[in-house]
């Protein structure tokens, strides 16, 4: 019986990137059985463009963040009965053979649905062969079986942004499923090349460089990093030094002191949900 694969793309106000992402999926050497788009309330013409694309399965919703988008996308694809659900952001540009390499891996492991697969979206060259086991992933070329979704549930939509994929990976591994990263299923991830602003800080004689973030991004970044580890009681203390470091560094950005404090506290008391200034 034919194994089915649905591509799921989450988008928000990045129509030019979405067009490029969709076109890369359309021309895959191994044709996908469906391309599902979750539009998170875009206001830049995305909705109109999507209405003209007859080969896409489209769902519109309010902006629930990347987390809410991946929750919806995996849910819809799983309910439609696809064997494998291959998820990504709208700035993921699959090389032409990415789906072939994914299919080859699925076949190599005899369609074992206790495995997940992660395409090589971050220019990783540290492979001994064509694949390796990992305990983390990003929602950029991540393929999960319906069987695992039924066992571990859906991603946490209340994270909104950042670390939702890290939490999902922890949950998958805790259920004794495997994540396999594929060397030659290559995705060019636009996020690695986006122009970002960086800030340099001297902290107790040491120089730190980190990405400049808006208030709401900084909030999710600090809170969710701590929150995912609080949810896994055996590990939560490991995240505390990193979260405190991020918090202390942010204190040097006095205009973000309040939001960083709120993020740290909400992570400690396990408060999730959407950021409210």
Description of the molecule:
The chain has 277 residues and is of the alpha/beta class. It has 2 domains: 5-192, Spore Coat Polysaccharide Biosynthesis Protein SpsA, Chain A (Alpha-Beta Complex); 198-268, no CATH class. Helices cover 39% and strands 24% of the residues. It is built from 9 helices and 11 strands. It has helices at 15-26, 46-51, 65-79, 98-108, 146-152, 164-174, 215-231, 236-251, 257-268; strands at residues 5-11, 34-40, 57-61, 84-89, 92-94, 115-120, 131-134, 142-145, 178-189, 198-203, 206-211. Strands 1, 2, 3, 4, 5, 6, 7, 8 and 9 form a 9-stranded mixed sheet that branches. A two-stranded antiparallel ribbon has the order 10-11. β10 (198-203) and β11 form a beta hairpin. The protein is globular. The N and C termini lie far apart (52 Å).
Defining key terms:
277 residues, 11 strands, two-stranded antiparallel ribbon, globular, 39% helix, 9-stranded mixed sheet, Spore Coat Polysaccharide Biosynthesis Protein SpsA, Chain A, alpha/beta
Indicate the topology.
Layout: E1 5-11, H1 15-26, E2 34-40, H2 46-51, E3 57-61, H3 65-79, E4 84-89, E5 92-94, H4 98-108, E6 115-120, E7 131-134, E8 142-145, H5 146-152, H6 164-174, E9 178-189, E10 198-203, E11 206-211, H7 215-231, H8 236-251, H9 257-268
Parallel strand pairs: 1-2, 1-4, 2-3, 6-9
Antiparallel strand pairs: 4-8, 5-9, 6-8, 7-9, 10-11
Helix pairs in contact: 7-8, 7-9, 8-9
């Amino acid at each position: 019986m034919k194994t089915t694969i649905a591509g799921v793309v989450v988008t928000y106000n990045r129509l030019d990137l979405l067009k490029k992402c969709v076109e890369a999926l359309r021309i895959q050497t191994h044709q996908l059985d469906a391309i599902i788009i979750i539009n998170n309330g875009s206001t830049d013409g995305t909705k109109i463009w999507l209405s003209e694309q007859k080969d896409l399965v489209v769902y519109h919703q309010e902006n629930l963040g990347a987390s809410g988008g991946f929750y919806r996308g995996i849910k819809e694809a799983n309910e439609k009965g696809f064997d494998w659900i291959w998820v990504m952001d709208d700035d993921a540009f699959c090389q032409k053979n990415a789906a072939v390499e994914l299919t080859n891996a699925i076949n190599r492991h005899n369609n074992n649905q206790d495995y997940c697969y992660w395409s090589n979206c971050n220019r990783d060259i540290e492979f001994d062969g064509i694949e390796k086991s990992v305990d983390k992933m990003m929602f950029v070329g991540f393929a999960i079986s319906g069987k695992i979704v039924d066992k571990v549930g859906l991603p946490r939509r209340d994270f909104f942004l950042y670390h939702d994929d890290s939490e999902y990976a922890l949950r998958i591994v805790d259920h004794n499923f495997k994540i396999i990263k594929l060397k030659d299923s290559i995705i060019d991830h636009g996020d690695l090349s986006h122009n970002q602003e960086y800030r340099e800080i001297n902290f107790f004689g040491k120089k730190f460089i980190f990405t400049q973030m808006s208030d709401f991004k900084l909030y999710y970044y600090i809170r969710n990093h701590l929150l995912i580890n609080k949810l896994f009681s055996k590990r939560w203390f490991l995240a505390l030094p990193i979260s405190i470091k991020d918090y202390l560094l942010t204190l040097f950005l006095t205009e973000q002191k309040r939001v960083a404090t709120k993020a740290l506290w909400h992570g400690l008391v396990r408060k999730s949900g959407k950021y409210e200034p």
